[in-house]
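Cross-posting from the chemistry board since nobody answered there.

I work mostly on the small-molecule side, so proteins are not my area. We synthesized pyridoxal-5'-phosphate and want a rough idea of how it might sit in this target. Sequence and SMILES are below. Is it possible to get a predicted 3D structure of the two together?
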Amino acid sequence: MDYEAKCTACSRRSQNLLDYKCPACGKPLDVRTSRRFEPKQIDDKIFGFWRHARFFPYVRKEDVVTLGEGWTPLVRHSGSVSFKLENLNPTGSFKDRGSTTLISATHAQVRKAKGYIAEDSSGNAGASVSAYSARAGLKARIYVPETVAGPKFSQIQFHGAEVVKVAGSRSKVAEEAQKPEKSKFYVGHILHPLFRDGIRSLAYEIVEQSGWKIPDRIYLPCSAGTLLLGVLSGFQHLVESGTVENVPTVVACQTSQVSPLFHRFKGSCYRPPEKIASVADALVSVDPPLLDLMVRQLKEADGDAVLVEENDILQAFSELARQGFFVEPSSAVAYAAYKKQLESKEASRANKTVIVLTGSGLKTTLKPSQQHNPAAS
Ligand SMILES: Cc1ncc(COP(=O)(O)O)c(C=O)c1O
């Protein structure tokens, strides 16, 4: 076998690609490939995610479910700063990298069992998993909080997913989604290792698009941690394969309201507010199930964490939009964090920097009247 799915706690191996947690102890699983990353193994006739098919050996060629995700532009912003435009993925966010691997690897088994896909997310992941399930010809059932509304929820429904509204907390929604039922295959993106593993491809693309050099610093918005863990895993693979010498400084960016990783990483105590009311409405994981893993991996990779305030996010969102980059406020968190670190001199303009713009501004619920007004400040 050219890959292994293994428990991050007890090291037990999982043999079933549909397992979303360790069958022995219930802790998160991680997938690793034993194939070295070799630039000559890239299929350079494909300008998309699947140019790296060789490094995702658990997906058979004939099973690939694609909407043309990946190979998003890396655009120079100014000086040594570039933006990776993940908002340009088919469903409008980086989540498509996770959905293409997850659905490609599992749809044949689900179809054979006459089953359906189950996921819990009212946001970009729900929209993406719905789209890829539709593309695979599978039914998707998406569990969402009762109060859900907005463009992402509409997108989930437009893709034809069945929606189940659940009263109570976000963890209650996850609990409901995970309850075993006949024909249900729960592949929730937060826990399922194949979703996170697809995000590895972002590291490969950044390095190739930078002429096989690593940037000094990478800024990522961080909530449940799939983006952070996926990108770190991609860079580790590149280092282990000898393609690059070291992992860049990965900076996990959070809002002051939702910052469990920041606080644990810095050794301080985090108390979430009673109600989350941030404009960064995709960053809501106050108690992410992968927190231990996120902290451990960020420390091992010598990364960093930053926290930004609401005003900084609005300002960054407006600044980006007025420069032509229309992204979600949640994505603007990474740009706001970069600006904050420039000011505090933790980052420098001389650093080669990549900021990942994770989601499309077309999905924002903000109104133009709420944006930051530069004339007023
Ligand atoms: C646009 C956007 N950016 C960033 C994130 C954070 O990603 P993760 O939950 O993997 O940390 C999300 C998650 O929903 C998102 O939708």
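Reply from a structural biologist on the board:
Welcome over. Reading the output above for you: Residues 166 and 176 are 8 Å apart (CA to CA). The longest helix spans residues 95-112. Happy to explain the token format if needed.
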